[in-house]
Request: fold
Amino acid sequence: MRTNNIESNSRLCMASAGSGYKLSLGADGPPGSYQDMDRTNLFFVIGANMTDCHPILFLRVMDRVKAGAKLIVVDPRRNTTADKASLFMQIRPGTDLALLNGLLHLLVKNGHTDPDFIEEFTSGWEAMPEFLEDYPPDKVAGITGIPEVAIRQAALWIGESPEWMSCWTMGLNQSTHGTWHTNAICYLHLVPAKYAAPAAVPSHSLVS
Reply:
C-alpha cells in the first residue's frame, strides 16, 4: 500500500506472538486447535482472564477440567479465572519471563526432557542448560513472589502431563518482552517433545 501509516491487529496484538513463533518454531502460525482442548490433561493459562474475556471458550475448558484435567492460572490478580484454578500462581507484575525460565529449569532438572527430539529437531540446546542455571526455584520465587512449592508443583504437572496446552493473550504479548515470552512458552513444549502430538501445543490463538 506504499505507506507505513497502518495500524492493525498484526502490528500490536499478534506482532510479538508471531515473531516468537517464527523464532522458536520456524513459522508464525499458531499451532493449536479447538479440538485439542477436548484432549488435554492440563491447561496453563497466563496473561489472560478467560472467564471475563473469553467466556464461551472457558466453558469448554471447564468441561475438560470437570473430566479430570488440571488448570494452572498465572496472574497478578486473583480474578474469576483464578477462582477455578487447580493451582493459582499470583505473580509479581513484569516477572513472567523469570517464571517461564524457572519452569524450564525444573523440567530439565526433573528429567522431563526428550533428548532424541532435542537432538533431531532443535538447535542451540547446548547453551540452554548453563543459561537455566540462573533460574533455580528459590531465586524464581524471590523474583516472582510465587511460593517455591507452587513453582515446583507446576513444573511437575507440566512434565508429567501426557498432553497439555498453554493459553495466553495480551498479558504477555503487549510487553517489552512479548517475543521472549512466546519463545519461553514454546520452549516448555519443545524440550519435553510435547508439541507435535495433538493437544500438546502452545495455543495463543485459542484465546485471542
Q: What stands out?
A: The longest strand covers residues 70-75. The radius of gyration is 16 Å.
